Description:
The structure is a homodimer of 429-residue chains.
Chain A: H1 13-25, E1 31-38, E2 48-49, H2 53-61, H3 67-75, H4 81-88, E3 95-98, E4 104-105, E5 112-117, H5 118-122, H6 125-149, E6 154-156, H7 164-176, E7 181-182, H8 185-191, H9 201-206, H10 210-221, E8 226-228, H11 234-245, E9 251-254, H12 259-272, E10 279-282, H13 288-293, E11 301-304, H14 306-309, E12 319-327, E13 333-335, E14 351-356, E15 362-368, E16 378-379, E17 382-386, E18 389-390, H15 396-408, E19 426-428
Parallel strand pairs in A: 6-7, 6-11, 8-9, 9-10, 10-11, 15-19
Antiparallel strand pairs in A: 1-5, 1-12, 2-4, 3-5, 3-17, 12-13, 14-15, 14-16, 17-18
Amino acid sequence: MTLTMSTALLTDHYELTMLQAALRSGAAHRRxxxxxxxxxxxxxxxxxxxxxxxxxxxxxxxxxxxxxxLTYLRERHVVDDDTLAFLAxxxxxxNVYGYREGDLYFPASPIMIVEGTFAEAVLLETLTLSxxxxxxxxASAASRxxxxxxxxxxxEMGSRRTHEGAAVAAxxxxxxxxxxxTSNLMAGYAYGVPTAGTAAHAFTLLHDSEKEAFExxxxxxxxxxxxxxxxxxVAEAVRTAVELAGPELGAVRIDSGxxxxxxxxxxxxxxxxxxxxxxxxxxxxxxxxxxxxxxAAPVDGYGVGTSLVTGSGVPTAALVYKLVARxxxxxxxxxxxxxxxxxxxxxxxxxxxxxxxxxxxxxxELITTGGLAPEGGIPLLHELVRDGxxxxxxxxxxxxxxxxxxxxxLPQEALHLGRGYAAIPTxxx
Amino acid sequence: MTLTMSTALLTDHYELTMLQAALRSGAAHRRxxxxxxxxxxxxxxxxxxxxxxxxxxxxxxxxxxxxxxLTYLRERHVVDDDTLAFLAxxxxxxNVYGYREGDLYFPASPIMIVEGTFAEAVLLETLTLSxxxxxxxxASAASRxxxxxxxxxxxEMGSRRTHEGAAVAAxxxxxxxxxxxTSNLMAGYAYGVPTAGTAAHAFTLLHDSEKEAFExxxxxxxxxxxxxxxxxxVAEAVRTAVELAGPELGAVRIDSGxxxxxxxxxxxxxxxxxxxxxxxxxxxxxxxxxxxxxxAAPVDGYGVGTSLVTGSGVPTAALVYKLVARxxxxxxxxxxxxxxxxxxxxxxxxxxxxxxxxxxxxxxELITTGGLAPEGGIPLLHELVRDGxxxxxxxxxxxxxxxxxxxxxLPQEALHLGRGYAAIPTxxx
Lengths: 429, 429
């Protein structure tokens, strides 16, 4: 079940036809610098969270045109024979720099920079954007949810509400942004994300009574299990649950109704039954606003599905992959930018730094196109690929810790859930 | 590059722990009927479009727990040894019925029914919902766009704005719902969807002048190519384009600005230059509303990205997978339904029919739990899997034709883009 499939066809048709035309004109071999950035933070968000970088590195290594891919391209006349010959030998041999996973980004932050020939760098546009646009969108939404939840743990359980492959990536991105666990087993297998689960209404309905269902679950999974108590009548279910499991019952899950009121009633009932340590887990279309609204309710954990995997209203991060510099006919590297209406971009190979105030809080995202590093500025771009070799891998837990530290460094108002401007200004030097 | 990876871990943790508990209680071997349906059509939509069924069948055949998956589950203590033994031998041996791809659905339409033992049917919940929730959401949005575009062709080009695997499925779903082509090469490879592409601003910026870029593209791809004309100045680019390619130039693409005004100006310019047959393709954050607003503009085709792959505001279809009947201790099949607040569901094994009025327009979605088929009612559920064997495969073009016919059978008001109620009522008998 190792993921060995080639990723080369996860690519837009025009990348290959542009390659063909550039091979013909000779410009394909010019050095080029592409940059991934967002013109704006969507949805009135205060910050974005970088996620997917590690997946880009994994999939870059599998970006190969084998005979199967080449046969398809030949038979469909997608590109000519010279281009097919180029693709057969294709190996990315350039450099990639990027923000680290879990770090934050703001408008115009150059979260990834790809340097190589035009030919080798243009081919990576579609796949790189697919991964980063999805994973950053999910991590950015997840970060708002973990902020809203405070110290209470969040379980990611949205697999069923998104594409089956996206589900795995979403679980990974949510973990980076502070979720405690996921329901998705493939995310556990592929990325080591802790997995968790409770039970569904179907399990209760399958048995001849709720009591029989609870007995079966406790007998098999132990008293520390989480029992789902809203299939029929919540109060009756809670009574049955504690009767069967005793006060050692791990948790109950409530998945419908007015969650704040239900949690309050269930807490009182559990306490009255002596089940002081039995936790209350709530689910049912939660998003960061609903989580925040439950802050005062006696809830011990949240399960979040749909809103997490759909980016809570922002399912894609609006990142673009733009040529910012290219070699001229005379061999010089020149900054370039198009002049389309309403779609600003800035040419040139960037450096990026985060500047802190005296108290250690982040103050400015500084983007430069050369010159000295600003004093005390934290460099944000790290080497990920050198001469085609991946050098920037790191454990997922490093990204998770980085995210927690980065959020803690933000001004307090950056954590407000309402629509607003970027938490810190982006400045150009 | 054949897709041979096991799909078994694209599954929620709790499906396996419920299985474990049900194996222990013995209830796992009871016959069970699960149903996939939507309680409501999200976003004020008038109808939904079924898509993903074919992918469910493909992935069902790869739903196997091999030694790699079992080792992971054992090492992480996800389930016990008895359950691992069950999983090692797992083959779905039941029956699946479903609406055909490309067909429409309405609230409560039972678009898929899975019959088997509880053990074998519950395991398919997560994967089935992941596929159908994603693909139906995309197809439902795509259908609104093809309605808005009328006879003008649509190119799906949203791969970069969604997860790389979701991109392939989105291209497939869009094709079912009437899109002419996709930019996604994997969708061409895996599903035979026609692929297409133009060129990016990077290609123009790479060359020393726009003229050199256009020359290179025409030399390599021929006069029928599509030139991107908004990198610098549109009028100048169009003049250069026709100067180089002559009136045989295939098309120009405009990707920014006021598309209606720009298309009008470019059409006039092309006509003045004698390029009467050169088509105008527009792109730039189009959705069904923007497409409809361009109906009077001289546009020959639309490229749609972000809004297509994100379901145009509705990225998931809100489909659920619910136990509707199960075998009792005495061996009888009994209808079941939970009683959760605000989450209605109806028990029982369903049949579904579409009823037409005398003019042949659809009038009612009729759902029954037994009894005779209504006279003249079109049965909507078809056999997809019989005793574990896939029997319901069909070519993607069949789904595409079915969708076109199904939309044509709707009352005219069902095609309105504004928010509203389901186009036809769902009735229960």
